Fold each of these.
Amino acid sequence: MMQKLYKLIIFIIVLAFSVSSYAQLRIEIRQGLEAPLRIAMPIFYGDLAINQMLKEVIESDLENSGRFQSILDSQMISRPTLPEDVNINDWRLIDSDYLLIGQTEVDSANNLRIAFQLFDVLRGEQIIGFRLATTIEEVRLSAHRIADLIYEDLLGVQGVFSTKIAYISEDIIDEVTHYQIVIADVDGTDPFVVIDSTEPLMSPAWSPDGRKIAYVSFENNQSEIIIQDVSTGFREQVSSREGINGAPSFSPDGSRLALTLSGLDGNFGGAHPPGPREISDWRHAHKVGTTGRVLPVYPRCRQSATVVL
């Protein structure tokens, strides 16, 4: 009896160990948590107000990407402004991955020159060195461009901090609802109104060169597709068919416009110029602009393989 009980105990222990071992083999790590890159940016040498804005915008851009973490000024052991002043060990001690330093100079004509250098702390060497010529009116834009350069160099992906966004804003003025298409920097600063209407506006889409916006307007008590020049304000009506006129989207070269139009067969169509036509195979259309699409500072477009309705 005792021998049977002993064998039973041994069997249970072996079974438990086997189940435990099998369970461990079933554990799968599908995704790791990537820590943000730690970057230190002492304030640049030169005009304090300009350099403070540069620091705030660059740090904000990089942090908002989710890929960077700024090191606080209170954690910094030293604050170099020139490459020869950099002691790499000061930044290794506070676990900084990268160090950004720079210098600014303003002349009597308010022209601004910015020089900056980026150091890889682990390798102990400078990896970026640039000079920008701009004006004091474009300090924010210059900061966005510096953030773009850093982002692309370190991550291999083109930054979008110097681009713009378009969005729909709704406001009540004198008890009347106003709808506006607003353009702003990608971080929401420097907004300006492209069009103001008491009727709904929808679906702003950028042309690839960033000079025009197509959108849906209900200003004539029905949906219409409008193309508007951003700089001049000139407006052109593209489609005003009965039913749905929606979801405008420029072709990659900006010469044509895809639209969503209602019809007997619920067609998806569009070509501009010369006028709307049906696209029988949607796989050959390309979605270029969407609500909130960024406005390139220089001509470019991003092309996908499908149209999303």
Note: Residues 13-29, 268-309 have pLDDT under 50 and may be disordered.
Amino acid sequence: MKCLRLLTAIALSVAATHPALAADPIFPPGVRVGLTPLVGLTAAKTFAGFESNDQSVKVLVTELPADAYAEVANAFKGNPAVMFELFNEPFGTNVYANWVAGINSSAPSGQSASDLSILRNGGTYDNGYWYQCNNGCNLTGGTEYLAANTGPFQVAGMQAMVNAIRATGATNVILSNPIGWAGQIQTWLSAMPTDPAGQLAAGWHEDGTGTSDAQAVLAAGFPIVITEAYSIGDATFTWAMANHVGFSYWAWVDWGSPNSVLMNAQTHAPGNQGTSLKSSYCTQPSVNSASPCPITSTASPPPRRPTRG
């Protein structure tokens, strides 16, 4: 039997995960984590999660409190090469106006505080998961919808997560991502948690605003790691290389075009984009000898990844 365990602690997210663009998420009974299951999987009848019709594939979904981060930290605190990403893509209400409202602004209806305040300090969303879809959902753009089968849920704040990690004695770098699917980097400085170890960095997904807002984070003395980037050779990539900003490509899979593959999944031979990415890495200060430089690049930039609504 194949069993794929999906733990929010492993993904280092607590409250919920994001829906796919084309369908509402499904919330297994007793769980406030909603997922759009992969093709061929349906909600399981005997456990909280999803399974295939022949039950050969099972996906278990579970929620873990902020204290669970201590267990993850204890497991990896002896390895300084491990960084802890608190919440991969925090989205709040998934409404842009709420994302960018000030941290001390009035709480939107149905939640205990502003999105930024809940992100940092924790709180509740009392009416379930509201979302706004502007493309790809076959819905009315800009209209707010309540996801089916959702109810009130409690969110652990990033400050509580940082405290739980540091209480173990772990001094690993912690990545705290901004609201808006980790894209609204202009909100990061106002909502970042306090790290007593002084090892806090901003994680950023190349979804939101431009590099001028990211530059302000660097100017304030905080490193940035772009943990989800969608193009090799564009303005953001060039800025990242020039400013020694960590850069991780969005995926090792084919996202929309064979030209966007970093390497062949069967032969593991590097593709054009993989070669180009390594060539750019080779312009940075060397940190180990595992991947020798230099390397020649013959790549051309791939198509941009579609933006979320």
Note: The two ends are 37 Å apart (CA to CA).
